[in-house]
Structure formats: structure tokens, C-alpha cells
Amino acid sequence: MSAETGTDASASRTGTTSSTSSVNPDSVRAVARKDFRDSIRSWVFWGLSIFFFMLLVATTGIISYFGDDIAAQGQTTTALVGLVQGITSLVIPLIALILGWKSIAGERESGSLKILLSLPHSRKDVLLGKLIGRSTVLSVSLIAGFVLAAIVVAALLGSFSVADYAGLLAVSILYGVAYTSLAVSLSSVTRSTTIAGAAMFGLFVLFYIIWDTVIVALSMLMNAGYLPQNETTAQATLLFNSLSLNSAYQNVLSLVTSMGETSPQTVALLEGMFGSVPFYLQDWFSFIILLAWIVVPIAIALYRFDRVDL
Amino acid sequence: MPALRVDELTKSYGQTLALDTLSFEVHEGEVFGFLGPNGAGKSTTINVVLDFIRPTAGRVEVLGLDAQAHSREIRSRTGVLPEGYQVYDRLTARQHLEFAIESKGSDDEPEALLERVGLTDAIDRKAGGYSKGMAQRLMLAMALVGEPDLLILDEPSTGLDPNGAREMREIVREENARGATVFFSSHSMEQVEAVCDRVGILQDGQMVAVDSVEGLRDSIGGGTSLRVTVDRIDDDALQAVRSLPTVSNVAAEDRDPPTITAQVDGSKTTVLAELEDHGVEVRDFSTTEASLEDVFQSYTTGAEVTAR
Questions:
Q1: CATH of domain B4-216
Q2: Chain B residues close to A111, C-beta within 8 Å
Q3: Does A34 touch chain B (CB under 8 A)?
Q4: Cα–Cα distance measured from residue B226 to residue B286, given in angstroms and rounded to the nearest whole number
Q5: pLDDT(B62) > 50
Q6: CB nearest A11 (choices: B56, B69, B78)
């Protein structure tokens, strides 16, 4: 099972040429399973599941209690998706970063990484296994919370849309995996958990403060006349906004569920401005952005982690 | 084919030279003691062997394979007891071993391995509560998974009491008898002399001596200290003994009973015969060998070795 599939045939004489490791699916699975077992304290898992359960049930309760108008329009699940994502868009990143920040740096600091890498796993296997292991903890607790709450939600809501509910769950999982990918990747570029922790904080600040601030600043500069108030600047601002992981989460949700479809008025406005709705404001593009936030960080980490002294 | 071949290996960290064109070989089927004081570069060498760190220059071959390009295959045939590790607190000994067994694709039984290292009692306890010695036993059991061709044990006696260290040496002998090559690092000669076929002494990133245990003893020149009890002291006899090429530091103590002491590198019977040829009656004699610890000290501190 641990057949050598090394790609670096040119054995380095000097040691300065970088070596790249191979990926073995069995190895990745073994690491992921061990990591899942090790990282999961049962209370974390159940705590998260109960948290998601409560979140859904409480939101549903509020809608069914106050939301007569919503119910009258048969939009209860849509309203649920909208309210829940307002909370999960903040809470899922927090959970993912907390689950992931020590994943590699912690093992490097304590030396348990030596146990993993003394066994026939490549460094890539370890990173991927960690990402899968930690993502599984978050995903399984999301699924558990959602599935358990489904009965209550379906009973309380007048019109329960399984598609919207499942869509919210699926996109939330992807969103969680993206933040886990960021967390594991950042954790692999440092040997200190302190720095890793600071990086997680920085990531949070980036997505929740800096990104929005940049957009506000761009608009202000445009309004004040420091930036040309033309189509290019407007496009750049909108593009920048759509690249944010958090916008991608909302946009993909509106693609998958019936939440927050772009209103015909907005479409008309955008078409008036740009001739047509720009590609990066279309929902399919936000799906690519969401996937890119999963793939790009871990790809960079895979490249770099192979090349460092542990 | 050597089990391990280190060829002109250099590793520097900025200005610090951890390994300086280090070269040595470990033969297939031997127990090799890799000895050196803390900070000599033993762990750095092992880290290159396992591809945890990359050489600045030079190369390492393990089981005939390049340590960097074929690390996965090397590690699938190698059992490792690393140094400075930490066990997974929330996993039991059984889960640790299941992970190693799954990783290596072997069909070992966790119970059997833990029995060999004497950790059966704690099999289903979380490793977070283990003592250093128990963790060390667990890691040794993990190293034994899959009957590896090569065992790399980095300071395996750390945290073990004398009894545990003896059991560990016993396992080294068993594994060697099975056919495994054992590469065994230590900062203490005492740990390696009992089990090692050959010993390499590392000092400041360079190998200062590689030899068998006996060879090292001889090479140091301390040889054997001979103490002979005689009936009388005879100057001619002393002179004759002093003139023997293999003898040094000859001293006579004219007391009761008269005693002659000498450092002997060659045969001690030559000395005894020389005394008797000069009519001196040898009543008793004893020898003391220079301990390997002294040999090690002399290589790593530059101190003179004299047999006690």
C-alpha cells in the first residue's frame, strides 16, 4: 500500500534541488482517520452539533412566532436560510479556525509530527489528511445538527423546502471547508502555534474588517473625486467585493437556494451600467470563488510544506 | 549494499555548521551505535536520513535508496523511534498501534507488540497520562510494526529505568537476530557497548572514530592496566619490562607485598615472562581494562585515558 510513487527521479547530489513528495490515497485516509479520532473530543463534536441544532430550531421558532407575513408568502424556508446564514457566516469561520489553527504547527511544536512522518506518509499526505480530518469534524457536526433539526423545522414551518434546507447545509459545509483549508494551510507555514494563532486572527480581520474597509474606502475615494468615477473603478470595486470568501458564501447560497435572488431592478441597473451583468457578479462565478478558497490555500501549502526543514 | 550510507553530508543553519562533510556506513545486519555528546549532530543526521530536513551538501542512502527521493519507501521498510516526539494525548496505545499498522499495511497485532515492550496493562488507556518511560515503550512498539529491515532508534533509553533500558537492549538483540539492521543513537557509551557490533563517535558534526567496541578500546592506547604482586623488586627486571615496546608507565611500589604496575597494550604474559626470566617470582596479578566510557570521554573531550 505504500508503494513508492515518488516524482523526484533526479536524486539530488547537492541537496539543494527541491524534492516533491507523492500523494497516496491510503495514506491520506489513514492520517485523516487518525486526525479525526485525535482532534475530536466528544464534547466538541456534540457541542457543535447541538449548537447548529439550536441555531436552526431557535431561528425557526422566531420565524414561526413573528413571521406571519413571511408564512403568508410561503417564504419561510427562504427566510430561515437568510437568517441562519447571517449567523453561520460568522460562526463557521470561527469554528474552522479554532479547529484548524494548531493542526500542523501544534504537531511540529510538540514533535508529534515526527510520529506521523516516521511512518510511510508523505508530507502531502499529512496536509491533505489533516484538512480532511478537521473538515470532517466540522461537516459531520453540521450534518448532525441540520438533520436533527430538520424534523422540528419541518413541523414548525408552514412551507418547508427540502431543497433550500439541503442547499444551506451543503454550501455551509463548503464554506467551512474553505476556512479549514485556510487554517490548515496557514498552520503549515509556521512552526510556532503562537504565530499560527496570530495568523488566524489576521485572517479573521482580513475578511471581516479589511475587505469591507477597502470597499468603503474605494467608494469614498470615488465619491470624493480622488478616484475616477468611471466604469473601470466601479468594476474593480465590485470584483474585489465578489472575491471575498464571505461574499462568495452569500452569493452561492442565493444560487443554490431561493434566498436573495438578484432583483430584476438591480439586474436592470447593472445592465444599464455595464451593458450586461458582469461575469463576476453572476452566481456561477461565486461558486468558483468559493471552490478557489478551498483549493488555492491548500495547493500553496502543499507546494511549500514539501520544501521546508521540519 | 550498506543499510545506511552517509556521504560527505553537510548541514548548516546560517552560520552554524551542524554536520561537516560527515561520511560513514552502517552494514546490513549489524547493530551500529551512533554515539556523541548532546549537540554533536546525531539528531540532525537522523533527521536527514528520515528526510525531515534537507542536506546543505552531500547525500544519504538508506537501504540502497536516496533518502530524499525515496523517503516513503525507505520509511515503509524502517521502524523509527524518534527523539523529542510527543504521543497523541487523546489516543490509546491500541489506537497508536492501529494507526502505525494501517500506515505500514502490516498485519501485526497491537496486543502482541505491546506485550513485547511490556505495556499490555495500559493498552486501552489514553497516552496523555503516560509517563516518559511508557511513552518510550509505546514508540518502540510502533517502531517494531511490520518487521522493518532497518530500525532507527534515537536515544531509545531516554526516560527508561535501568530495567527498561535492559529490556530495550533485549529487543534490539531480538530484532537483530531476526535480520534487522539497528542504528542506535545515544549520548552514553554504557547504553551501546552491550549491544553494538560497531560504534561511531560523532563530535561537532564529524565522525571522530568508527570501530568495533574492541577496536575502540585498543585504539585509545589505554590498553590494560596490569598489577603484579612479586616477592621482591628487582631493578634489572624493571628495566627489562620498561624496554618492552608494548609497555608503558611502569612503576614499582616497594612495600609489603611489593607490587609492580604497568600499562600494557599487548600481551600481559610477555610482561610476566620477562619478570620471571629475571628471577622474580610472580605471586599474583590483576588487570583492569579501560572502560569504553573512558574511551568515549577521551574522544569527545580530548582527555587522556588511563586504565584504572
A1: 3.40.50.300
A2: 82, 84-86
A3: yes
A4: 6
A5: yes
A6: B69
Residues of chain B with a CB closer than 8 angstroms to some CB in chain A: 47, 50-59, 66, 68-73, 75-76, 78, 80, 82, 84-88, 90-91, 95, 99-100, 102-105, 139, 142-143
DSSP chain A: ------S--S--SSS-S-------HHHHHHHHHHHHHHH--HHHHHHHHHHHHHHHHHHHHHHHHH-HHHHHTT-HHHHHHHHHHHHHHHHHHHHHHHHHTTTTHHHHHHSTHHHHHHSS--HHHHHHHHHHHHHHHHHHHHHHHHHHHHHHHHHHSSS--HHHHHHHHHHHHHHHHHHHHHHHHHHHT-S-HHHHHHHHHHHHHIIIIIHHHHHHHHHHHHHTTSS--SHHHHHHHHHHHHHSHHHHHHHHHHHHSSTTPPPHHHHHHHHHHHSS--GGGSHHHHHHHHHHHHHHHHHHHHHHHTTS--
* CA A292-A293-A295 angle, 5° bins: 60
CATH of B224-289, one of 3.30.70.100, 3.30.2380.10, 3.20.20.140, 1.10.579.10: 3.30.70.100
pTM of the model: 0.82
Closest CA to B268 of B304, B290, B241, B307: B241
Contact B105 A14 (CB under 8 A): no
Name the nearest CA neighbour of A303 among A119, A127, A116: A127
Chain A / chain B CB contacts < 8 angstroms: 126
Contact criterion met (CB < 8 Å) for B59 and A112: no
Which chain B residue has the Cα nearest residue A310?
A: B52
Within 10 angstroms of residue A52's Cβ, the number of other Cβ atoms is: 28
Q: Please tell me which of the candidates A6, A34, A120 has its beta carbon nearest to residue B99.
A: A34
Write out pLDDT tens, residues A280-294.
777 788 899 999 999
| A72 has a chain B CB within 8 A of its CB | no
Domain ranges for chain A? 25-207+295-305, 208-286
Complex prediction ipTM:
0.81
Task: Note whether A37 contacts B90, CB cutoff 8 Å.
Answer: yes
For residue A4, the model assigns a pLDDT of 41
Asked whether B222 and B212 are in contact (CB, 8 A), the reply is no
Query: Is some CB atom of chain B closer than 8 A to the CB atom of A1?
Result: yes
> Using one digit for the tens of pLDDT, what is the confidence trace for B71-101?
999 999 999 999 889 999 889 999 999 999 9
Select from B43, B62, B86 the residue whose CB has the most chain A CBs within 10 Å, as the one to mutate to test that interface: B86
Q: B261-278 pLDDT, tens per residue?
A: 887 777 778 888 888 888
In the predicted model, residues of chain A with pLDDT beneath 70 are 1-19, 40-42, 67-75, 259-265, 267, 269-270, 273-274
- Spell out the domain ranges in chain B: 4-216, 224-289
pLDDT value of position A263: 63
Cβ contact, residue pair A2, B73, below 8 Å: yes
Any B CB within 8 A of A12 CB = yes
